[in-house]
Amino acid sequence: MSLKKILHLCEKHGFVKPLWHGSEVTRLNFGPVGEFLVNNVRQEWHYSSVVNRDENFYPVQSRLNRSDGLTNDFDGIHETYDHIKSLCNGTLPFGIAQTIADDNLMLKNRLQAEQPHQVFKPDHQTFLRSLLFVSPNDGRQAFYTWQQKRKMWWRKAKDGRKQVLPFLVECILSLEIASLVFLCDAFLENSRRQLLRLHRRLSPIKAGFVISLTDSTVADRLLDVARHLSRSLRQNGLTTLLLSDIAKKSHDSQLARNDEMGIPFTIVLTDSTLNDGIIWMYSRETTLKEQVHISKVPEYMTLLVKNY
């Protein structure tokens, strides 16, 4: 698998625009579709690190520059730590989910030795850091529990009324590198097609539209139906791709484009849709189509995407 081939496909469809310096990618400028992906990665991290937790976790935004002089795990979060500790009445466990804009890669350079054959060396990264403060008695169990989901390491801090050092379980990831890894992992090529098999929850666009016609006189009416469906899906929080030329381009070429963009579902409207209200829902994963009534599409697609 060629990284340049993957980046070419991603650039073609507005995911990223890589800036090369020799053989190294020095920066990834995310395009309009890529911004959806980055936001989805951030949302999934926020859900798993803040919302879907037994402990109380609180989000915080930070920015690092050279004047910050980052030297240890608590630089930049002392005040936040004190506020959260007070909010929790000094009772452990509690956690901080920190989004760090690291303009000079100070955090990366402190945490990770430079790899000799690293291809992607961005000059800016956004780090997502999870910090869980627990009692020393619970630290080991907390570590092993969290370790099942992420690669982690633990440090020490301070606990309530006791002058002891509790365990700190920490996990850090780069938002930019994570997004690139998901794109590389999703890339698939065979003799028939190229596609991005992005997880449905990460896919920047959840649904595309195709109009397959035998009677060109109903094109405008079907386009109105597509607009109505697109609006309904967006109201349900699902992103869609609705282009003005979907009745003009071939059915197969549009499905191929949507596969390349990682769109998990394509709604195919036909002449008979105006009579019976039935659309065909094409799956990127199986390449099969199933019949769904228009009135059921928003609810059905929401279940397919959000419960996957």
From TrEMBL:
It comes from Frankliniella occidentalis. InterPro entries: aa-tRNA-synth_II/BPL/LPL (IPR045864), Anticodon-bd (IPR004154), Anticodon-bd_dom_sf (IPR036621), Gly-tRNA_synthase/POLG2 (IPR027031). Transmembrane segments: none annotated. Residues 210-301 form the Anticodon-binding domain. One of its GO terms (biological process) is mitochondrial DNA replication. GO terms for cellular component: mitochondrion. PANTHER family: DNA POLYMERASE SUBUNIT GAMMA-2, MITOCHONDRIAL, GLYCYL-TRNA SYNTHETASE/DNA POLYMERASE SUBUNIT GAMMA-2. Gene3D superfamilies: Anticodon-binding domain (3.40.50.800), Bira Bifunctional Protein, Domain 2 (3.30.930.10). This is Uncharacterized protein LOC113204804 isoform X2. It holds the Pfam family HGTP_anticodon.
